[in-house]
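Board notes (copied after class):
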Amino acid sequence: MKLAQLQALFSQHLLDPSIDLSELQISGPFAAKQLMNLYRNNFNISLSDYLTGCFPAVSALVGEEFFAQLARAYIVECPLTQASLEFYGSGFATFVSTCPQTQSLEYLADVAALDWALDRAHSVQSFSDFPFAQLTKIDAEQQLQIIFKLQPETILISANYPLLKIWLGAKYGDLEHLNMTQIDYLIMHPDNKQGAKYYSLTAKQYQFLAAVAAGEKLQMLTAQPDFQAQLNHFISENVINDFKLEGEI
């Protein structure tokens, strides 16, 4: 059996114990199935611990036992494809949004998205200021083709419930007095002092930043309410920290 085939069979059996192990031709004092069960158990515990660390608010909301079941289902449905765990949780919020067992918790996927966004924000090591000097080199004809960029690892979420209070309440054990009809507009972005900043936006601010995130040109952005004031504010907050011209990568 070629190495690639052996690795594929080994990986398949980690996720599905019913797969026949006879082709592995494992010999020794312990049966192949016993060795694989031990390895699988340690493998699942390691990935589950990783997911618990990445998604503490989700775990707090649903409880340890239910989260362990979610983690196990995610491990099977979204198997690890590379040695590094750095990005393994990237699909967890989407998984939660489609999981039948979580459909009654409409906010849970967004809570997972915030957990992951916090993890990614803290991973950012370098920060760049807005390139004003480069901007001055753009001629008047090109200026309307400018596309502003949000700082990498910035997330915007709109929700028909008090998402920020739910997320913080889960983290700190205070979920009392929530107005579940409250509409929330949130941003989370890396910060060179705090590691991450997260706060609520007004509907107008959210609409503006969503347009920036969608890649709208300056020509279109100028129609946004209080365009200049908003642009200045979010550049000063290092939320908008770069730009390009239409057609540039």
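Comment from the instructor: The chain has two domains: 1-123, 126-249. Strands lie at 146-150, 155-159, 184-191, 195-200, 240-245.
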